[in-house]
Design a protein that fits this description.
Rossmann fold, alpha/beta, 377 residues, globular, binds iron/sulfur cluster, four-stranded parallel sheet
């Protein structure tokens, strides 16, 4: 039963042309919108459309070089490549948001190089500490809502927004529960790779279907007999997008167990909840401005906050060491790295840095991972 549930989280679903939910929604004449990063997907879902996070892939690039500079991260280049090859022909549009500079350039490149019916760009302040940030972003979110209403010809009611927020909140709390089953006890009840794959693929599923699947997995896991306590070193993974999840398996094959992460394609997706009481647009504004930050935010004290978040997660999941997996050319994360690394070491938390660029090369990484895990043993 557990195996059946896990099979629904096949990584191939991250391609819109291979995703069964995209096929089903389109057969029912319901639209699908691809989105990047922290777009408030709840509004898309409330509009009756399927929000589909664009996750790219790890394959070698074919045509992106002609349209997008090679000094951008593989994640962004792979999206241009997939779009040029027609992978987004099943999307009714792409929604982007002001996050790191690469995402802004990516939005421009997609708009000019890809044949997609519509594009929309949401402005998001980079400093949530300035007094005007909330009002400005709320206005942007409201403009986005109005755009979707024009796009679909239907109004988005407060009730449909509240339902959508509730569905995504349930997704978030179930993913958090799954992370707890993996990382809070002495021995993970699920392999690290299974949990990270579920979180990753959850981003391209309708939240209501995902609730059923996640609840089934949690029930199955809770019924399993408990394994004996493990003495293997516990690893926290830090970084931005981790597209090649075989890195998690590699860590575990090298003797560690992955118990947590702060990836933007992992734990940062679900750590907090959107307030379900009060005005839905205010709640979404607060959530997307103040959720666990990535280094694309420039608010005062943001590095200290990021450090505190990592330390808090390391303590919460009792990790023995941190492995940074940063995308090559991701300046946003790379700029933070020296500060985070030196502070974590001062806290007595060992750190290993790995740079990833599309698919990982296990032969290159194995020796470094084995040495690091041996030190932690
Ligand atoms: S934060 Fe880094 S990995 Fe993510 S899109 Fe920007 S440059 Fe790429």
């Amino acid at each position: 039963m557990l195996e059946n549930h896990l099979q629904s989280y096949d990584i191939s679903c991250t391609s819109p042309s291979l995703n069964p939910f995209v096929r089903k929604w389109r057969e029912q004449n319901r639209g699908v919108l691809g989105y990047l990063c922290n777009v408030p997907k709840e509004i898309i879902y409330a509009a009756g459309l399927l929000p589909f996070r664009l996750l790219g892939d790890t394959k070698p690039l074919k045509e992106a070089y002609a349209h997008f500079p090679s000094v951008f991260c593989h994640y962004s280049r792979s999206l241009v490549d997939l779009g040029i090859q027609g992978d987004f022909q099943h999307l009714d549009g792409i929604i982007s948001i002001n996050m790191c500079d690469t995402i802004v350039h990516l939005a421009n490149a997609m708009q000019t190089s890809l044949d997609v019916p519509c594009f929309y760009f949401i402005n998001r302040p980079h400093d949530n500490g300035v007094p005007a940030a909330h009002a400005f972003f709320r206005q942007e979110i409201n403009k986005f809502k109005q755009f979707l209403e024009t796009h679909t010809g239907k109004s988005i009611t407060d009730l449909s927004l509240a339902r959508s927020i509730r569905a995504y909140n349930q997704n978030r709390s179930l993913l958090k529960e799954l992370y707890a089953l993996r990382g809070e006890g002495d021995t993970p009840l699920l392999p690290g790779i299974a949990v990270n794959t579920i979180a990753y693929v959850s981003q391209v599923m309708p939240p209501d279907d995902n609730i059923q699947l996640l609840s089934g997995i949690i029930d199955d896991v809770c019924k399993q007999s408990k394994p004996t306590a493990s003495k293997r070193p516990r690893i926290h993974i830090s970084g931005s997008m981790l597209q090649d999840l075989s890195l998690i398996s590699l860590v575990e094959k090298c003797g560690g167990i992955v118990v947590s992460d702060d990836l933007c394609s992992g734990l940062r997706l679900f750590w907090e909840q959107v307030n379900e009481n009060g005005d839905p647009l205010d709640s979404l504004t607060d959530y997307y401005l103040n959720k666990m930050p990535c280094p694309a935010m420039h608010s005062k004290g943001i590095e200290e906050q990021r450090l505190a978040d990592i330390i808090r997660l390391v303590r919460h999941y009792r990790a023995d060491g941190v492995v940074f997996c940063l995308q090559k050319y991701c300046d946003t994360h790379q700029f933070d790295l020296p500060y985070l690394e030196s502070c974590l070491k001062k806290e007595g938390i060992p750190v290993l840095n790995l740079e990833v660029d599309g698919a990982i090369n296990p032969e290159q990484l194995r020796t470094r991972l084995q040495a690091f895990i041996e030190i932690l043993s």
